[in-house]
Design goal:
heterodimer, A: 332 residues, alpha/beta, 11 helices, 18 strands, globular, B: 332 residues, mainly alpha, 16 helices, 77% helix
């Protein structure tokens, strides 16, 4: 299923310019933004620091006024939505530190129902179902009775996402939800968001700097560069047409292969073998300044059965570290 | 139950010894041996104990609100400069050195004059704080400005003291010690009504207080109107802390410590539970402090301000050490 098959537009901006009123002077940050976000899409919003990502997101959430242009959510201009209606349209996951260590994860998720509750905080059946559903969808059942201060960073982030789910909004906006998390948790969060976009038919917009995760999971990228309009498209198109290179001005990272560029030091070896061992041997060689060349005189063979490497059929290495050491001695 | 018990103990203690059964008799309206005992109980001790209850609840609840609003464990009812404003008013009255005021003091009107001066002083500082709070976005700025107002008024009080006579300074100093005993039934009624109004305002903003546990941005995203909530918080704090300071002087410690104690004891951050719990704990602690300040079996009454800290500080330290980090219950 591709993004273009979704018909329902959750968020649309028209000729939007965002920025600040400073000293009675307009300071536009991002100009002429006309983008659409469809239901069921995970959108990664990327760009260098200070380019105005937060300013645009704040403007979409109606926390600051646009300098010109308009924003509509499900076809309604946000100027016509009051605070209550906005809270039922957009939920947030922010990087703000929270002050609720003594709440349980469950109580924190339940806070998501606040836009629907009266002053006495009475929870009805609908609210209860939404809370339970959010907890199940985020997969946090096993620690929902724990206190916030007992949770790990990864668990807390999932609880915050569950809270946003309980708010039951067509749009979910996250500001760097994977910052400070380890690789496992980063992948878990992104997979969770992707699943939520599909299952709940939400539009999920996530500001992030994680290019590798974004390329592999986003339905769409929004790219913001300095003094440029925002570029939108599916990740692969933006890689191939060079938009990502242009925005990030990547140094030493080869986008086409998705790896860091390795400097060859003019030393060439011939490598034969197959599978994972071949890939990682190649990685180790390139990282150490060797270039793979089928015409090279030095020949390395991988023996998959016994798991050792041979250089020119006579020298044997049992680890890659050993292999590189032997090579350095042989060639220099 | 605890409160009833403490209330009974509180009114049975004092510089004049009255047997327990007689105290009970007076309470249920039975016959008494000496009519002077009835007078002491009904006109002095009961108002005093009722004052303690109102003061304890008011200060503790306003402290709770300030800690939540400013996300700062060191915040208390007086961070906005309420007590400094009251001190300034009282200092102007008592230290201005005119004969008129001293004659008022001897005529018994002095009590009301003090109350009016304190109310005017704290009201003035508070209006400035409110004016500022409408202009500034974030509460931290407000906190700093409140502290600055406090320093300013403190400086003016110092200058006044420098030019005053020893007697005047002594009268002022006695006011700063705090006193629960000075209130007659009329004054107690006024205090009671104001405190009840303040508590009612707080009860109406439990929802925004809970939302503020996350952060101001999160609260806003859940449809909370930050500015009006902040105004209501300031309003109820000024009613609660302002009226107590006007009638009883600046009573320290209760407002800062009781919310922490209650969070630890009840193991929650939910204001729906915390608000009544904090009010009850404040009441209990204030009654205990009042009992101790009368030094059972002796003729003298110690200044209440010294007792609250003398008793409170070790209790708080003990509970923190026993229950673990306060950071857990306050932030995450």
């Amino acid at each position: 299923m591709t993004a273009t098959q979704h018909k329902h537009i959750n968020l649309q901006t028209d000729q939007l310019t965002v920025g600040y009123f400073n000293a009675k002077e307009l300071t536009p940050v991002l100009e002429n933004i006309s983008i659409k976000a469809y239901a069921g899409e995970l959108i990664c919003f990327m760009g260098p620091n200070g380019v105005g990502k937060s300013t645009l997101l704040r403007t979409i959430c109606n926390l600051q006024k646009p300098l010109s242009g308009s924003i509509s959510i499900e076809g309604i201009d946000i100027n016509q939505l009051d605070a209550q209606a906005m809270a039922q349209a957009i939920s947030l996951v922010l990087t703000d530190s929270i002050n609720a260590g003594n709440l349980t994860a469950y109580e924190l998720v339940a806070l998501g129902r606040y836009p629907y509750l009266g002053w006495n905080l009475k929870v009805n059946d609908t609210d209860q179902n939404k809370i339970d559903h959010a907890i199940a969808q985020a997969g946090i059942e096993s620690y929902v009775r724990k206190k916030i201060y007992e949770l790990s960073d990864g668990q807390l982030q999932k609880v915050m996402i569950a809270r946003a789910l309980a708010q039951d909004t067509p749009l979910l906006i996250l500001d760097e939800p994977t910052a400070h998390l380890d690789l496992n948790n980063r992948v878990a969060i992104v997979n969770l968001l992707k699943k939520l976009a599909r299952d709940e038919n939400k539009t999920i917009i996530m500001a992030t700097h994680e290019l590798d995760l974004a390329l592999q999971s986003a339905d769409k990228l929004w790219l913001a560069g300095y003094n440029k309009p925002i570029i939108e498209g599916i990740p692969e198109d933006l890689v191939l047409n060079g938009s990502i290179d242009e925005v990030f001005q990547l140094k030493g990272y080869d986008l086409k292969t998705g790896t860091l560029k390795k400097e060859s030091m003019g030393r060439k070896v011939n490598l034969s073998g197959s599978g994972h061992t071949y890939l990682w041997t190649k990685n180790a060689l390139e990282r150490n300044g060797y270039e793979i060349d089928t015409l090279a005189l030095t020949h390395i063979t991988i023996d998959d059965e016994t798991n050792y490497w041979k250089i020119n059929k006579d020298v044997t290495a049992h680890t890659l570290e050993d292999l590189i050491k032997q090579l350095n001695q042989t060639i220099l | 139950m605890v409160i009833l018990g403490l209330f009974f103990i509180d009114i049975s203690l004092g510089s004049v010894y009255i047997p327990l059964e007689e105290v009970f008799n007076i309470l249920i309206g039975g016959d008494v041996e000496k009519s002077s005992w009835q007078n002491i109980i009904l006109k002095f001790r009961i108002p005093r104990a009722l004052t303690a209850i109102a003061v304890g609840a008011a200060l503790a609840v306003s402290g709770l609100q300030m800690q939540t609003l400013f996300r700062n464990p060191l915040a208390g009812p007086f961070v906005l400069g309420i007590s400094s404003g009251a001190s300034l008013g009282v200092a102007l009255l008592m230290l201005s050195g005119s004969l008129i005021t001293s004659s008022f003091f001897t005529s018994g009107l002095g009590n009301w004059l003090t109350v009016i001066a304190a109310s005017l002083g704290s009201g003035l500082v508070l209006m400035l704080v409110v004016a500022v709070s409408i202009r500034v976005r974030d509460s931290m700025t407000l906190l700093i400005i409140g502290l600055m107002f406090g320093s300013l008024t403190g400086a003016v009080v110092s200058i006044l003291q420098y030019f005053s006579t020893g007697d005047e300074i002594q009268i002022y100093l006695f006011w700063t010690f705090g006193s629960l005993g000075g209130l007659n039934i009329d004054e107690l009624q006024v205090l009671g009504v104001i405190v009840a109004a303040g508590l009612a305002v707080t009860a109406s903003i439990i929802k925004p207080l809970n939302a503020l546990l996350l952060s101001e941005n999160y609260a806003r995203s859940m449809g909370v109107n930050i500015k009006s909530s902040r105004l209501l918080i300031i309003l109820s704090t000024s009613l609660l802390a302002g009226s107590v300071t006007a009638f009883c002087g600046p009573i320290a410690f209760i407002g800062l410590a009781v919310p922490h104690l209650t969070r630890l004891l009840f193991d929650t951050s939910d204001h729906k539970i915390l608000l009544p719990a904090v009010a009850l704990t404040g009441t209990i602690i204030m009654l205990v402090c009042d009992i101790i300040s009368q030094v059972p079996g002796s003729q003298s009454i110690l200044p209440i301000n010294a007792i609250t800290s003398l008793l409170g500080a070790p209790v708080v330290i003990w509970i923190i050490l026993r229950k673990g980090s306060m950071k857990n219950t306050f932030a995450s």
